[in-house]
Amino acid sequence: MKIILIAAVAENRVIGKDNQLIWKLSADLKRFKNLTSGHYILMGRKTFESLGRPLPNRTHLIITRNPDFETLEGHYSFRTIEDAIIFCNKIEVEKLFIIGGGEIYRQTIDLADELEITEVNTEPEGDTFFPEIKDSLWIETYREEFPADEKNEFDYAFVTYEKK
Ligand SMILES: NC(=O)c1ccc[n+]([C@@H]2O[C@H](COP(=O)([O-])OP(=O)(O)OC[C@H]3O[C@@H](n4cnc5c(N)ncnc54)[C@H](OP(=O)(O)O)[C@@H]3O)[C@@H](O)[C@H]2O)c1
C-alpha cells in the first residue's frame, strides 16, 4: 500500500489555527478533491470535526482515543493509527491518503511514501504545524508554481516529494 500525506503548508510550516484552515485557495481544494476522490482518507478526530461533514466519494478513517466516538455508516474509526493501517492492508487498499492534522502528520510522516504539498506563500500565525520535510529523507520530484489571483489569496506551488 502506498501512503501519501497531503497538506497545504505555509512557509513557516503553519497548517491551521483554531481548528480551521487559514487561507482561501480554491486551486488547493480542487487538487485535494482530484487526488483523494475514490480513495480512503485517514485523519485525526479534530480534522474530521473541522470538515463539518464527510467528504463525498471518499471513505473516512478517523483516529480517536474516545471509545464512544460514533462513526457514520460507511466510514470507520480506530483507537490507534496502527490499527487503521492494519485494516487498510487487510482489505488491500492501494493508496491511503493521510489528510491531517498536525498530530497525525507528525506521527505518520515516517510511514509515508509520498508527500503532496501545496506550499502557500505566506507566514501566518497558527497553532498547528506540518513536520519538517528533511532533505536527507525526501526528494522533490515535481513542482508547479502559480501566482495569487481572485480565487487564491497567496502565491502557491504544488510540490511532490518521494521518499529517498
Ligand atoms: N493545511 C492543511 O492541509 C490541513 C489539513 C488538515 C488539518 N489542518 C488543520 O489542522 C488542525 C487540526 O490538527 P490537530 O493537530 O489539532 O488535530 P488532528 O491531528 O486533526 O486530530 C487530533 C486528534 O486525533 C486523535 N489522535 C491523534 N493521535 C492519536 C493516536 N496516536 N491514537 C489515537 N488517537 C489519536 C485524538 O483524538 P481524540 O481527542 O478524539 O482522542 C486527537 O485529539 C486544524 O486547524 C485543521 O484546520 C490543516
UniProtKB/TrEMBL annotation:
Catalyzed reaction equations: (6S)-5,6,7,8-tetrahydrofolate + NADP(+) = 7,8-dihydrofolate + NADPH + H(+)
Domain of life of the native organism: Bacteria
Listed pathway(s): Cofactor biosynthesis; tetrahydrofolate biosynthesis; 5,6,7,8-tetrahydrofolate from 7,8-dihydrofolate: step 1/1
Enzyme Commission number: 1.5.1.3
GO MF annotation, one: NADP+ binding
Keywords of this entry: NADP, One-carbon metabolism, Oxidoreductase
GO cellular component: cytosol
PANTHER family per record: DIHYDROFOLATE REDUCTASE
A Pfam family of this chain: DHFR_1
Domain DHFR: 2-163
Protein name stated in the entry: Dihydrofolate reductase
Organism in which the protein naturally occurs: Algoriphagus boseongensis
SUPFAM superfamilies: Dihydrofolate reductase-like
Matches recorded under InterPro entries: DHFR, DHFR-like_dom_sf, DHFR_dom
Stated family: Belongs to the dihydrofolate reductase family.
Function: Key enzyme in folate metabolism. Catalyzes an essential reaction for de novo glycine and purine synthesis, and for DNA precursor synthesis.
Broad class of enzyme this protein falls into: oxidoreductase
GO BP terms in the entry: dihydrofolate metabolic process; folic acid metabolic process; one-carbon metabolic process; tetrahydrofolate biosynthetic process
